[in-house]
Amino acid sequence: MTSSLVRQVLILAAVALIPGVGEAVYFRHKISWRSAVLPSEMVTVDQARAWGGNVIWVDARPDEEFARDHVPDAISLNEDRWNDLLSQFLVVWSPGKKVVVYCSSLSCNASREVARRLRREAQLPDVFVLEGGWEAWLKKR
Amino acid sequence: MKTPIVAFALSILISLSARAELKWEQTTLELHPTAADKQAIGHFKYQNPGKTPVRFKSVHASCGCTTAQTQKDEVPAGGTGEITATFNIGDRTGTQVKTVTVETDDPTNTKTVLTLRTIIPQQLEISPTFVFWKQGDKPDPKTITVKVGKDFTVKHIKVTSSSPDFQAKVEEKGNGEFKIDVQPQETKNLIASTLTIQPEDSQKVFYATARITNSPTVQ
């Protein structure tokens, strides 16, 4: 009786496994919706503040959110208007400066995307993503 | 042994068909806008195969660049409809994955995540988009590489510098590849130039920046 029950459970589990394996194979090349960021490319509010004036804060949120409030002296750079805003950011950037990009919260992805493009397309060094984003900064303000 | 398995499977099927739950035609859509498109729009179609109506509690997108709209607040039993997700492309590039979370009053499955995967075609891939010289550096030329995207044909590109202090020379390398040599006249002054890169027979314009920066900050 027990062995029959175990066998039935195993059969059901095996059947349930088939679509799971199929999906894993089918989606093996599909990317995650969140850009991967190495731990070394993340920075906390306290760490970024410790860098003092050697930091350029980059606000990756939409224009309206930036207009409402932002980190003092932050520069707006979002992907809605990347071409317009990038040149304004590059006027401020200079070698040796650290760049800290933030978006709304821990779950947003815009800061990761902006940081990735600054590293990959503009080939800037020392570009970091702020852990927890604007929400984390507000808590420490 | 077969009887309990069949009974179990049947009971699941019966309970699934009886409850009020939206059945989605697809929860993931892949969109392929053209290079000229400003938006990519996805239609997530659903059906309510249950015996009671389903009410939408909330529909929200994962980012400000995406909006989602329902046609109605309540889906009657047997009713159909769709959620329209509009992704504003802006200056984004590559593959963009955005989600729309739909919450209904169905107690067994309150949340459904709809995924919109948009493949934005890239006519030109420019690397790097920024070249700089430190003040006092030798004004040697720096190279920007331009590669034509796989679905495009570009035979010539035109590059214009916004400032006469920087010169840009284009070399056609073949196989959809170009080399732009950028050179400042001198590096004494903190000057900058926007390089406008335009493929032949195309309205689309790409940009790169050249700049003389000040020396690194001493730590």
Q: Tags for this entry?
A:
heterodimer, A: 141 residues, alpha/beta, Oxidized Rhodanese, domain 1, five-stranded parallel beta sheet, 6 helices, 48% helix, B: mainly beta, Immunoglobulin-like, 2 domains, four-stranded antiparallel beta sheet, 1 helix, elongated
How would you describe this structure to a colleague?
- The complex is a heterodimer of chains A (141) and B (219).
- With 141 residues, chain A is an alpha/beta fold.
- Chain A has two domains: 1-30; 39-140, Oxidized Rhodanese, domain 1 (3-Layer(aba) Sandwich), CATH 3.40.250.
- Chain A is built from six helices and five strands; from the N terminus they run αβαβαβαβαβα.
- A five-stranded parallel β-sheet of chain A has the order 1-5-4-2-3, with helices on both faces.
- Chain B has 219 residues and is mainly beta.
- Chain B has two domains: 21-120, Immunoglobulin-like (Sandwich); 124-213, Immunoglobulins (Immunoglobulin-like).
- Chain B has one helix and 17 strands.
- Chain B has a five-stranded mixed β-sheet with strand order 2-9-8-4-6, with no helix packed on it.
- In chain B, a hairpin with a 2-residue loop joins strand 14 (166-174) and strand 15 (177-184).
- The A-B interface holds A 4, 7-8, 11-12, 30-33, 54, 61-62, 64-65, 78-83, 86-87, 90-91, 93-97, 108-110, 113, 117, 121-124 and B 1, 4-5, 8, 62-65, 88, 90-93, 95, 97-99, 115, 117, 126-130, 132, 134, 192, 194, 207, 209, 211, 213-219.
In short:
Chain A has 141 residues and is of the alpha/beta class.
Topology:
The complex is a heterodimer of chains A (141) and B (219).
Chain A: H1 2-26, E1 42-43, H2 45-50, E2 55-59, H3 63-68, E3 75-76, H4 82-92, E4 98-102, H5 110-120, E5 127-130, H6 133-140
Chain B: H1 2-18, E1 23-24, E2 28-31, E3 39-47, E4 54-61, E5 66-70, E6 74-75, E7 80-88, E8 94-104, E9 111-120, E10 124-127, E11 130-134, E12 142-148, E13 157-161, E14 166-174, E15 177-184, E16 192-199, E17 206-213
